[in-house]
Amino acid sequence: MKRSIIIHPDPRLKKPAAPVADLSDDLRRLAGDMLETMYDAPGIGLAAPQVGVLSRLIVLDCVKDEDAEPRPLVMFNPEVLAASEERKVYEEGCLSIPDQYADVERPAQVRVGWLDRDGNPREEEFDGLWAVCVQHEIDHLNGKLFIDYLGPMKRQMITRKMQKLKREMARS
Ligand SMILES: [Zn+2]
User: What family is this (predicted)?
Assistant: First the structure.
């Protein structure tokens, strides 16, 4: 089932999400819904707070080539275990901040630990777009958006555009 994505600004996007204590069927269903919502948007990552659930759960699939096999990843309690000193700038966007893009600098590689759909601990090193995406989604679990890396002027400009968009959406 597709869920609706919360648009910035919204207090739910600013709150830290709670760790998942045990993997209920509800949470697994939510993960499936989030993947469906993400692919439909379309996007490459989605965090539970973006659909109004303040639990530490993210989904991602950064396979861009349409002919390539999809690789949906579901991560409960994801954590950056190590980050490279090398940093990279990437133009980021966010499903909660539609049609706005800006350069964000982050570590180029990260090692991430998480629990998979079956509750098994997993660990993997990510780089390229995967590294950008997984860090962006984990930020969501800490109430942080990519625009929080920008200067105040740019951030306010984007926030005002989103307020206007939300007013227009409410009217239609
Ligand atoms: Zn986002």
Answer: Belongs to the polypeptide deformylase family.
Within a 13 Å sphere around the CA of 4, how many CA atoms are in the beta-carbon half?
A: 4
The pLDDT tens digits of the residues spanning 145-154 come to 999 999 999 9
Segments making up each domain of the chain, as ranges? 11-171
What per-residue confidence (pLDDT) applies to 6? 98
137 given a catalytic annotation: yes
User: Does 8 count as an annotated binding residue?
Assistant: no
| CA 90 – ligand 1 centroid, Å | 14
Q: Which CATH architecture has domain 11-171?
A: Alpha-Beta Complex (3.90)
What is the Å distance from ligand 1's center to 149 Cα?
13
Rounded to whole angstroms, the Cα distance separating 3 from 95 reads 12
Instruction: Report residue 64's pLDDT band, with 50, 70 and 90 as the boundaries.
Output: confident
Please check the confidence at residue 34 and state whether its pLDDT lies above 90. Answer: yes
Question: Is 94 annotated in some ligand binding site?
Answer: yes
